Amino acid sequence: ITAYLTYSLCLIGFIYPIVVQIAWGSDGYFSPWLGSDDEKDYFAGCGVMDFAGSGVVHMTGGVAAFVGAVFVGPRRSFQDGTNATPPYGPVFQTLGTLILWFGWYGFNGGSTLAIVGYGQVAAKTMVTTTLSAACGGIGTLLFGALLDLRATQQFTLKLDHANNGVLSGLVGITASCAVVEPYAAALIGLMSSVVYMLASKMLKQCGVDDVVNAIPVHGFCGAFGVIMPALFATKENYNAVYGIYPGAATKCAGVLYGGDGSSLEAAGAFVLVVLCWVGLTSTLVFGTLKAAGKLRVSAEVEEDGMDVSEHGAPRRDK
């Protein structure tokens, strides 16, 4: 628990606030919220469109999770990309997914920070959030079954695929929820499901033991989500949400809607900065914890499960 409290404090007290500042601050390097009418004040003339935090929130957590998983190392039951430990109860996993999905409406819709004058923007975020989550769940369910069919000759619809697919769609739409049209939201959800499945498979092949697939959901789909508004943001939606200076929509809309690519430049640069900043600082935190011998529990504690040692749960029969 010492390691948990240490990295939590470092992440929320130092690493994450820096990302928030550069993307959302009134003087942030990538921020579109500078309040200036001068195009030159904004990175690439636009700033990054990360409305509710695909990169700021989710990619930050995903990169930190990756570094943590690498330093902790795989569980003893994780061999050759396969984990022998049975998954936790699917009922509770699904309940948690549905609770998160419900909360996402406040997360995305509430990012308008006000309802007066922003009612239509908030309403659009609710629609796009719903569509992307639903399509992410369906896409992952089917794509995962096809991958299983190829590997095992069995077509199996797995609940954990659907649950993480919903979360992938939610993460993927978070940056662009206010600036894309409903059809684009559905497409983003489907593409997020592919990003999630391929990233999950790649990590297992690389020997990274991500217990709950947080890295594919938040890290990979978060980075993917930052890029999406730079492709799919319409000029009308951009003006309703940002409209940072006269004529900005013509320059900063998604490249598929007439933008000149400046938003794509800003999105790509922001993803790289988050990757470097969070990756380096997380390496310092987790590396120090590992050097101090605080990062991993003993084999006996791992075998029993940390609910026993940390929370007083009864030991399960072997």
What does this structure look like?
Helix content is 65%, strand content 1%. The model has no long low-confidence stretch (mean pLDDT 93). The chain has 13 helices and two strands. Helix 2 runs antiparallel to helix 7, helix 3 runs antiparallel to helix 4 and helix 4 packs across helix 6. Strands 1-2 form a two-stranded antiparallel sheet. It has 318 residues and is mainly alpha-helical. Strand 1 and strand 2 form a beta hairpin.
Total beta strands = 2
What integer is the average pLDDT?
93
Main-sheet strand order equals 1-2
- Structural class estimated from helices and strands: mainly alpha
User: What percent strand?
Assistant: under 5%
- Count of helix runs: 13
What's the gyration radius in Å? 21 Å
Helix content: 55-70%
- Ranges where pLDDT stays below 50 over 5 or more residues in a row are none
In angstroms, what separates the terminal alpha carbons?
25 Å
Provide the succession of SSEs: HHEEHHHHHHHHHHH
* Biggest sheet character: 2 strands, antiparallel
Query: Judging from the principal axes of the Cα atoms, what is the shape?
Result: globular
